[in-house]
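Section 3.1: Structural characterization of target chains.
Under the original work plan, the team committed to producing a structural model for every single-chain target entering the pipeline before any wet-lab resources were allocated. The record below documents one such target. The sequence was received from the expression subgroup and is listed exactly as submitted; it comprises 58 residues.
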Amino acid sequence: MLLFRWAILLLLLVAGVSFAFYAGTGQVKYRRFGWIVLKWTLLAAFGFFAVLIAERVG
């Protein structure tokens, strides 16, 4: 569980760095990569926390 939380934090950091590169260079590939990483990270995080909530309820 701790490993998954660190992975989510690391991926959010990667997305943030990618957006910073986009702001610095103006290249669209960094923004596109940042959105893809952010989208999948948030989906994985919501799934992870949904499983935790389901375990508490059930």
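DSSP finds two helices and no strands in the chain.
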